[in-house]
C-alpha cells in the first residue's frame, strides 16, 4: 500500500487503539491528505478555532505581568495556565505544516510495513510482537488520559477570585470576596461585573476543554507513531535472528548452494527493509525535533516554577497544591512518554547488530558475510530522538 492510499482499521498494527484519533478527526485529516494531498476543511476549522481560542488566552496571561500587581503565587499560576494553550498552538501548527511527513510516517502504523522481508510462516510471531507492543502503547496512553482528565477536572473548578487578580497579592485563598474564575489571566474587561464575568468564565472553560482534548490527541498520535517505529525494529530483529545459516549440508553441494541462495535473497530483502526503517527514523527525528524540544522546555519550566513556588510561595491550600501537582505530573508523563519511546527505539535499532551476529553469519558464503557486515556497521549507530538538533532523548534525559 503506497503513501497515497488511506489507512483502514484492518491495516493498523494489531491491538493498537486509534479511537481517540478518530474521535477528534485527526485520523480523517491524515487519510484525506494521503488520498488528495490537500488539507481538508476539518483541519482548517480546527486550526482556526485553536488560534481564535488560544491566542487571546495566551496574550492576556502574559499581559497580566505588566498591568496587575504581581507576586510569586500569581506569577506561578499565570505561567501554569499559559503553557497548555501555548503547547496546543505549537503542536497544531507542527501537525499542519509537517502533515506530508506525518502522513508518510503513519505508514509505520501498518502491520504490513515490512511485508517484503517477513515470510508468511512468521506471521503469527509478528502478530504476537505487534500485540505486545500495542498493549504497552495503549497503557501509556491510558495513563496519560487519566492524568489529564483528573487535572482538567481540577482546573475547571472556578477558584481564582477576580478581586485577587485585580486588587490583591499574597495568599490568594485569603480573599473571600467577589466571584471566582478558572485562571489568573487578566482581560481588558470589567471581569468583576455581569455579564463580562460570565462571558470570561465560559470562555476559560471552553479554552481548558479544547486545549486538553487536542493536546491529548496529538500526544497519542506522536507517541503511537514513535512506538510503531519501535515495533518495526523489533519485528525486523526477530526475523534476522531466525535466519537459518548453519546447516548439515556438505559445502559445494546442491542443497548447500540452494540454502545460501535463499539466505542471500532473504538478507537482501532485510537490508532493503532496514534501509527503509533508517530513512523513516531520520524523517521522524526531523519532524519531532521541535516538538520534543518544546516538550522538554515546557517540562523543565513547570518543574522550576513548581519548585520555586513551593520553596518561596504560600502553598497552604490543598486545592492549589493538587493543581500544581497535576500540572507537574502531566508534564512528567508527556516527557516520560517521549523519552521512554525514544529509548525503546534506540535499544531495538542497536539490537539489530547483535541479532545479525547471532545468526552465525560467518558460516555463510562470502556474499552473505559482506552484506551482514554492512548491516552490522549500520546498526551500530542507534536511532533516537533529539532535542535542540543534537541532544539525544532517552532514559538519561529523564534523570537529568
Word description of this protein:
The chain has helices at 19-23, 26-36, 41-67, 72-97, 99-105, 123-155, 162-167, 196-241, 254-312, 318-358, 366-380, 395-399; strands spanning 160-161, 180-181, 385-387, 391-393. It is an all-alpha fold and 400 residues long. It contains 12 helices and 4 strands. The strands form 2 sheets. Strands 1-2 form a two-stranded antiparallel sheet. A two-stranded antiparallel ribbon has the order 3-4. It is elongated, with a radius of gyration of 26 Å.
- Helicity, as a percent range: over 70%
Oligomerization: single chain
Succession of helices and strands: HHHHHHEHEHHHHEEH
What radius of gyration results from the CA coordinates? 26 Å
Q: Major beta sheet, specifics?
A: 2 strands, antiparallel
Indicate the mean pLDDT: 84
Shape designation: elongated
What are the segments in which pLDDT stays under 50 over at least 5 consecutive residues? none
Ends: how far apart? 42 Å
Quote the beta fraction.
Answer: under 5%
Number of helices: 12
Judged by helices, strands and strand pairing, the structural class is: mainly alpha
> How many strands appear in the DSSP assignment?
4
Main β-sheet, spatial strand arrangement: 1-2
Offer a concise description of the structure.
This protein is mainly alpha-helical and 400 residues long.
Essential attributes:
single chain, 400 residues, mainly alpha, two-stranded antiparallel sheet, 4 strands, 70% helix, elongated
Please render the helix and strand layout as text:
Elements: H1 19-23, H2 26-36, H3 41-67, H4 72-97, H5 99-105, H6 123-155, E1 160-161, H7 162-167, E2 180-181, H8 196-241, H9 254-312, H10 318-358, H11 366-380, E3 385-387, E4 391-393, H12 395-399
Antiparallel strand pairs: 1-2, 3-4
Helix pairs in contact: 2-5, 3-4, 3-8, 4-8, 4-9, 5-9, 6-8, 6-10, 8-9, 8-10, 9-10, 9-11, 10-11
Amino acid at each position: 500500500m503506497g503513501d497515497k492510499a488511506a489507512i483502514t482499521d484492518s491495516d493498523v498494527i494489531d491491538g493498537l487503539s486509534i479511537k481517540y484519533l478518530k474521535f477528534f478527526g485527526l485520523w480523517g485529516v491524515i487519510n484525506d491528505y494521503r488520498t488528495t494531498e490537500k488539507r481538508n476543511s476539518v483541519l482548517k476549522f480546527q486550526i482556526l478555532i485553536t488560534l481564535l481560542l488560544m491566542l487571546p488566552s495566551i496574550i492576556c496571561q502574559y499581559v497580566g505581568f505588566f498591568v496587575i500587581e504581581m507576586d510569586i503565587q500569581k506569577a506561578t499560576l499565570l505561567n501554569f495556565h499559559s503553557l497548555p494553550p501555548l503547547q496546543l498552538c505549537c503542536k497544531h501548527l507542527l501537525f499542519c505544516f509537517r502533515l506530508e511527513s506525518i502522513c508518510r510516517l503513519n505508514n509505520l502504523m501498518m502491520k504490513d510495513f515490512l511485508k517484503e522481508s517477513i515470510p508468511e510462516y512468521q506471521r503469527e510471531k509478528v502478530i504476537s510482537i505487534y500485540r505486545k507492543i500495542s498493549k504497552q502503547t495503549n497503557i501509556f496512553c491510558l495513563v496519560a488520559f487519566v492524568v489529564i482528565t483528573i487535572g482538567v477536572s481540577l482546573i475547571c473548578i472556578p477558584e481564582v477570585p477576580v478581586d485577587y487578580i485585580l486588587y490583591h497579592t499574597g495568599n490568594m485563598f485569603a480573599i473571600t470576596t467577589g466571584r471566582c474564575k478558572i485562571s489568573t489571566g487578566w482581560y481588558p474587561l470589567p471581569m468583576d461585573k455581569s455579564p463580562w464575568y460570565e462571558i470570561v468564565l465560559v470562555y476559560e472553560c471552553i479554552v481548558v476543554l479544547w486545549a486538553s482534548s487536542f493536546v491529548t490527541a496529538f500526544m497519542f498520535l506522536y507517541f503511537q507513531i514513535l512506538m510503531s517505529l519501535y515495533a518495526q525494529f523489533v519485528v525486523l530483529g526477530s526475523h534476522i535472528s531466525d535466519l537459518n545459516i548453519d546447516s548439515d549440508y556438505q559445502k559445494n553441494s546442491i542443497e548447500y548452494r540452494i540454502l545460501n541462495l535463499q539466505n542471500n535473497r532473504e538478507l537482501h530483502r532485510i537490508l532493503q527493509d532496514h534501509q527503509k526503517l533508517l530513512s523513516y527514523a531520520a524523517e521522524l527525528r526531523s519532524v519531532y525535533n521541535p516538538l520534543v524540544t518544546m516538550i522538554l522546555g515546557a517540562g523543565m519550566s513547570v518543574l522550576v516554577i513548581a519548585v520555586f513556588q513551593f520553596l518561596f510561595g504560600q502553598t497552604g491550600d490543598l486545592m492549589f497544591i493538587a493543581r500544581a501537582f497535576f500540572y507537574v505530573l502531566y508534564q512528567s508523563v508527556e516527557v516520560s512518554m517521549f523519552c521512554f519511546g525514544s529509548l525503546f527505539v534506540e535499544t531495538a535499532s542497536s539490537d539489530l547488530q547483535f541479532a545479525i551476529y547471532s545468526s552465525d553469519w560467518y558460516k555463510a558464503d562470502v556474499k552473505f558475510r559482506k552484506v551482514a557486515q554492512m548491516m552490522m556497521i549500520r546498526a551500530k549507530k542507534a536511532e533516537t530522538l533529539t532535542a535542540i538538533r543534537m541532544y539525544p532523548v532517552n532514559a538519561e534525559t529523564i534523570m537529568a
